[in-house]
Amino acid sequence: MNQIIQEIEAPLIKDNVPQMNIGDTVKVFVKIVEGNKERTQGYEGVIIKRRGSGVGETITVRRVFQGIGIERVFLVNSPRVEKITVQRRGHVRRAKLYYLRKRTGKATRIKEKVTGKKDHAATAAAPAQKAAPAKAEKAAPAPAESAPETTSES
After folding, report:
1. In whole angstroms, what is the distance from residue 44 CA to residue 111 CA?
2. What is the Cα gyration radius of the chain?
3. From CA 25, how far away is CA 60, in angstroms rounded?
4. Percent of the chain having pLDDT more than 90?
5. Are 124 and 80 in contact (CB under 8 A)?
6. Are 39 and 83 spatial neighbours (Cβ–Cβ below 8 Å)?
7. pLDDT at 127
8. What secondary structure letter does DSSP report for 140?
9. Distance of alpha carbon 7 from alpha carbon 75, whole angstroms
10. What order do you get walking across the sheet with 81-88 strand by strand?
11. Residue 129: enclosing H or E segment and its boundaries?
């Protein structure tokens, strides 16, 4: 992309957008203006499409409401999108989930992505490493205290 365009778009791009993929169930909080009042409304559904990059990046979120499928396109970096939270990670093998439009009921379910042992082991090891130095510090004074006792007995 052109350097000048990048400089213009840089302040417009949000930095608090979570990592989202196709098939993830997300909740998008959108600012809605009714008269002179402004409120936030949540829209929860499955990401079936993602396109663009930079300021123009969009996601299409699909949900079924009262038996009717509704799809909304959200501009990820829009000031009207207050925040996006990922409710559930989905495991899919397609870039676009248009086939969900033809399906109803349980056929629209998407498997949940299971985190691998690598990720789980890394997160489990991090607290253990923090706890180990604390235990070592507590253990170090104990031998030092016991050392003078052994010298006093000698």
Report:
1. 17
2. 26
3. 11
4. 60
5. no
6. no
7. 56
8. T
9. 20
10. 68-75, 58-65, 37-51, 25-34, 81-88
11. helix 117-139
Residue 17 token pair: 């957008």
Strand runs (DSSP E) across the chain, as ranges? 25-34, 37-51, 58-65, 68-75, 81-88
Contacts of 67 (CB under 8 A, 6+ apart): none
Q: What is the pLDDT of residue 154?
A: 47
Q: Rounded to an integer, what distance in angstroms lies between the CA atom of residue 61 and that of residue 71? A: 5
How far from the centroid of its chain's Cα atoms is residue 139's Cα? 39
Residue 116 has, within 13 A of its CA and on its CB side, a CA count of 3
**60 close to 134: Cβ distance less than 8 angstroms:** no
Give pLDDT tens digits for 73-106. Answer: 999 999 999 999 999 999 999 999 999 999 988 8
Among residues 87, 81, 82, 59, which one has the least CA distance to residue 72? 59
